[in-house]
Amino acid sequence: MAYLKLYRDKLRHNYNYLDTLFKDNDIKWGITTKLLCGHEEYLKEVADLGIGEMLDSRISNLKKIKEIDPDTLTTYIKPPPKDIIDSVVKYADVSLNTELSTLHALSEEAQKQDKVHKVIIMIELGDLREGVIRENLIDFYEKVFKLSNIEVIGIGANLNCMHGVMPDEDKLIQLSLYKQIIELRFNKEIPLVSGGTTVTIPLLLRNQLPSGVNHFRVGEALFFGKNLFTDGTIEGMHNDVLELYSQVIEIAEKPKVPSGELGMNPQGEVMDIDEDDYGETSYRAILDIGYLDINPDHLINMDDNVKIADASSDMLILDVGDNKAGYEVGDFIRFRMKYMGALGIMNSDYIDKMVEE
Prior knowledge:
The protein is α/β, with parallel strands linked by helices. The protein folds into 2 domains: 7-233, TIM Barrel; 242-356, Beta Barrel (Lyase, Ornithine Decarboxylase, Chain A, domain 1), CATH 2.40.37. Helix content is 28%, strand content 25%. It is built from 10 helices and 18 strands. The strands form 3 sheets. Strands 1, 12, 13, 14, 15, 16, 17 and 18 form an 8-stranded mixed sheet that branches. Strands 8-7-6-5-4-3-2-9 form an 8-stranded parallel sheet. A two-stranded antiparallel sheet has the order 10-11. Helix 4 (85-91) packs across helix 5 (100-112) and helix 6 packs across helix 7. The longest helix has 18 residues, at 169-186. The chain is elongated and about 75 Å long. The model has no long low-confidence stretch (mean pLDDT 95).
């Protein structure tokens, strides 16, 4: 058995930290919930925090959010696929967009549903994920403003999500200036400059965030307290809102070096042998999770005496040295996780999810 635990009090603590930070700086923000993979109980925990906006990259998750709290502003946070345009208009109050043909389809569908669909136009600032090329921005906005059932509420950008390009003052000033240029060019008001994500929070804490940036989309900082500039934890936040517990199903003293001719393992790797390990033994604990659930590289030990040795599809092998902790079959060993590891766990039907104060 393995299970994931969400600590409600730590989640609330991190939320209050962020909410105070953003309110003190006159910044609107929403919680990005894609990590939760539509898990209803966890979505309810987030909704109960009192946040006014929840953002997700899966329309089925936004549908659940609307069922939980119809008044929550929902935002679809990637350019919408054309085959779900009707659902995007139905369940997402806002969507992030980069393609004119998609915006035409959104406008037509919004007209059918007797709605005005709100959009934030994303621009390319160097990380080379989604975004309109800056040289095309004026022409792009001119065409979007002509769409009858589309309301442009913002300009936005993503950084650090693809190639690791970090935000800085210059890039975010550019984003704010584009907003001003568009407003002057078309005599339109664009309320939001959505240039903030978890990676941008350290700039805000150091008073290096340009004043024009007034909207943040935050997930990783809420659940992990992550400072992506230092790869550490933001001071004053919890990094253990989520913890993974996995049960020991075997523990025995075994050689450190396998015996027999070594070939390629199921991960396509051939093991390198440390010659100093010949003749040495240690206690090896087998846990009931594996690559099917999480990449071991995304696990963070909570016990310094534990070392992840390897994994197969559904078993994780730990080297516990001389077993000073006295682990036995049936004991649970807990881990923190990196974001991508938690994402895999949340998407696994094999891992139970629970909430604890």
